[in-house]
């Protein structure tokens, strides 16, 4: 058949698929870490025509009143109503609608499998299981596109309310069966794209809606078909499966009207025409380089930190030298006695204003004896037991001396000298006069005499004198002396 020389005719043999996309395993975009994703990688013009289409022909069952919306609103609302969409992401989508559309575009590429789950879109990502890629054309706002695994989890949970109770349809035939039964829409737009992107249904879709060698996933690859025509074919498929059978498709063209079930005609491009699409502006190229350099600096810091940690693990720092215990203080008995002796320093008077009695005596030994304000402490020395060179003291002087110099906690046998013995003798003489007999007489008949019982008496009452009364303590004139062992009043 002869063709006009300037007419654009559909010829399947003119479609050229790049060699790296001939196999389905190479469908995802392949880029190294920190390498930016260009507009050609994303097929940015295709995404633009899909989300910029103004036709409000899709039923949004998630919105109140089930209004008719365009594809952009349908897809964004499906992501927003996903049970895996975080509150932070929802707030950002409401606050910045531009970010919501950018997120929806990157989600659509994840939906069809172009974005692999090993990709991330923030430079501070540390895990080695993912690679960072700046996306200059879809990161115009300050929102976080997160990473591909989170995006895919959000997509998996974007279902209709009825699909949480039963499994959603998983084949094109099941979707047609639900729409034929009156369930409009038969499934969510996200689940529909998952079904159409499945390798199990690629042959069915290619035979039903495309001419060889085109299939559904070729719409998202950098091939020599115009972006606008591919976007129209995609929207035609969305309406075809989400609407009731027999409904007129608003995306039909003359070719699809004549050939029911076929997508509209897609226009092929020459090599020069392909170069005019998906061109990266200079500012996006510069921003991608900047983010790649930032990623390199972050990785270098991370490597340095890991290297230092490995060195510390292999060569741990030496343990600090053990601190020597303080030398033990060895004091002689004389030094300890000199430390204990000052009584005024064991219980110092309190300087507080709350009339406190001061702190109780502690068991800590001071490092050095403090001087006694009243009389210097004397270091105990060998006493002169003979008493030569010392003058006798009165009882008052000796009591004052004992109060200032003798520690009651020490054994009194170590402090015996002539003055102490003299003081003991004086006390014994006083006791003898009080008792009326010499101290410690020998017991009679080896029997211990019973001690006299004390009988309480009323104060200031003089009892009548009775001869032989053992309790008479006030002798009368001319009366005989009391028997030995009885107390009597001594006149000083």
Automatic annotation (TrEMBL):
<feature type="compositionally biased region" description="Pro residues">
    <location>
        <begin position="316"/>
        <end position="328"/>
    </location>
</feature>
<dbReference type="InterPro" id="IPR038014">
    <property type="entry name" value="Ies1"/>
</dbReference>
<feature type="region of interest" description="Disordered">
    <location>
        <begin position="306"/>
        <end position="328"/>
    </location>
</feature>
<feature type="compositionally biased region" description="Low complexity">
    <location>
        <begin position="452"/>
        <end position="465"/>
    </location>
</feature>
<protein>
    <recommendedName>
        <fullName>Ino eighty subunit 1</fullName>
    </recommendedName>
</protein>
<feature type="compositionally biased region" description="Polar residues">
    <location>
        <begin position="348"/>
        <end position="359"/>
    </location>
</feature>
<feature type="compositionally biased region" description="Basic and acidic residues">
    <location>
        <begin position="390"/>
        <end position="400"/>
    </location>
</feature>
<feature type="region of interest" description="Disordered">
    <location>
        <begin position="340"/>
        <end position="418"/>
    </location>
</feature>
<dbReference type="GO" id="GO:0031011">
    <property type="term" value="C:Ino80 complex"/>
</dbReference>
<feature type="region of interest" description="Disordered">
    <location>
        <begin position="432"/>
        <end position="492"/>
    </location>
</feature>
């Amino acid at each position: 058949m002869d063709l006009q020389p300037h007419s654009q005719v559909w010829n399947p043999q003119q479609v050229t698929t790049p060699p790296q996309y001939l196999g389905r395993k190479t469908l995802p975009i392949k880029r190294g870490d920190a390498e930016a994703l260009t507009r050609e990688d994303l097929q940015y013009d295709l995404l633009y025509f899909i989300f910029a289409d103004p036709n409000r022909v899709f039923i949004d069952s998630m919105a109140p009143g089930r209004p008719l919306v365009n594809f952009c609103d349908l897809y964004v609302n499906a992501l927003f109503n996903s049970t895996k969409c975080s509150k932070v992401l929802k707030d950002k989508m409401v606050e910045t609608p531009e970010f919501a559309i950018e997120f929806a575009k990157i989600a659509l590429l994840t939906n069809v499998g172009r974005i692999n789950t090993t990709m991330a879109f923030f430079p501070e990502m540390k895990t080695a299981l993912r690679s960072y890629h700046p996306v200059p054309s879809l990161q115009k706002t300050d929102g976080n596109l997160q990473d591909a695994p989170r995006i895919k989890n959000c997509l998996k949970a974007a279902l209709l309310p009825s699909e949480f109770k039963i499994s959603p349809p998983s084949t094109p035939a099941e979707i047609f069966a639900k729409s034929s039964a009156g369930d409009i829409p038969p499934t969510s737009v996200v689940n529909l794209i998952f079904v159409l992107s499945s390798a199990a249904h690629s042959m069915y879709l290619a035979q039903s809606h495309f001419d060889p060698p085109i299939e559904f996933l070729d719409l998202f690859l950098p091939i020599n078909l115009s972006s606008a025509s591919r976007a129209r074919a995609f929207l035609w498929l969305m309406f075809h499966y989400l609407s009731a059978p027999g409904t007129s498709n608003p995306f039909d063209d003359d070719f699809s009207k004549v050939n029911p079930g076929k997508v509209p005609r897609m226009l092929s491009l020459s090599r020069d025409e392909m170069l005019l699409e998906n061109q990266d502006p200079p500012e996006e190229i510069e921003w991608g380089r900047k983010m790649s350099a930032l990623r390199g600096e972050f990785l270098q810091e991370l490597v340095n930190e890991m290297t230092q940690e490995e060195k510390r693990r292999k060569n741990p720092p030496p343990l600090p030298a053990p601190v020597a215990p303080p030398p033990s203080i060895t004091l002689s008995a004389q030094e300890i006695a000199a430390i204990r002796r000052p009584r005024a320093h064991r219980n110092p008077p309190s300087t507080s204003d709350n009339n406190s009695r001061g702190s109780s005596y502690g068991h800590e030994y001071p490092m050095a004896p403090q001087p006694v304000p009243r009389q210097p402490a004397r270091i105990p020395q060998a006493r002169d037991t003979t008493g030569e060179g010392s003058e006798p003291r009165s009882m008052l002087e000796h009591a004052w001396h004992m109060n200032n110099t003798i520690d009651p906690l020490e054994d009194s046998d170590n402090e015996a000298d002539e003055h102490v013995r003299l003081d003991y003798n004086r006390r014994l003489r006083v006791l003898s006069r009080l008792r009326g007999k010499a101290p410690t007489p020998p017991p009679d008949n080896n029997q211990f005499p019973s001690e006299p019982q004390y009988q309480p008496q009323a104060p200031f009452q003089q009892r009548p004198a009775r001869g032989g009364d053992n309790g008479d303590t006030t002798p009368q004139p001319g009366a005989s002396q009391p028997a030995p062992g009885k107390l009597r009043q001594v006149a000083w």
